[in-house]
Design goal:
By secondary structure, this protein is α/β, with parallel strands linked by helices. The protein contains five helices and six strands, in the order E-H-E-H-H-E-H-H-E-E-E. The strands form two sheets. Strands 2-1-3-4 form a four-stranded parallel sheet, with helices on both faces. A two-stranded antiparallel ribbon has the order 5-6. Strand 5 and strand 6 form a beta hairpin.
Length: 154
């Protein structure tokens, strides 16, 4: 289980993308869980809100996390890594931060564990032309076209 990764996705559409990718890399070491909206900010919430929050309960159950337990390694967990797969927008960044905040608040040693939290960087731009596509995770300025020779200049 320490070699397995739980992919936390931003909704069902991202889950479908993750599952289709698993058909390429194999499903033996990966699980996928779609988050329903933004995770609760555990630092601002009451104990009852945290304990009664469905998303937090599911994540804890899937990973095998227990409140009050200090984890020096990931060997006792069901997954040795979590991979956050969100959109590259403000909501996606906020969701990533809330997940990291949740882990840091209750199990900070897991964040110090080598590579426990991973990020799947989704492309921002996808360009298609004649069945070919190019994805660019961070758009860069297009090179300027070279000036064409002017047949009227001397």
């Amino acid at each position: 289980s320490e070699h397995c990764t739980l992919i936390l996705t931003e909704g069902d559409s991202a889950k479908a993308l993750a599952v289709s990718g698993l058909s390429v890399v194999g499903r033996d070491r990966y699980g996928v869980f779609p988050l329903r909206g933004k995770l609760l900010n555990v630092r601002d919430a009451s104990h009852d809100q945290i304990m009664n929050n469905a998303e937090i309960s599911y994540i804890k159950q899937i990973l095998g996390l227990r409140h009050g337990t200090a984890y020096d390694s990931v060997k006792s967990l069901r997954y040795g890594h979590i991979m956050i797969m969100t959109d590259q927008d403000h909501d996606g960044s906020h969701i990533k931060g809330l997940i990291i905040n949740f882990i840091h608040c209750y199990w900070p040693a897991l964040l110090r564990h080598h590579d426990f939290v991973r990020e799947f960087v989704t492309p921002i731009v996808k360009v298609s032309k004649a069945r070919q596509s190019l994805s660019n995770p961070s758009p860069s300025p297009s090179p300027r076209p070279s000036p064409s020779p002017n047949p009227n200049s001397n």
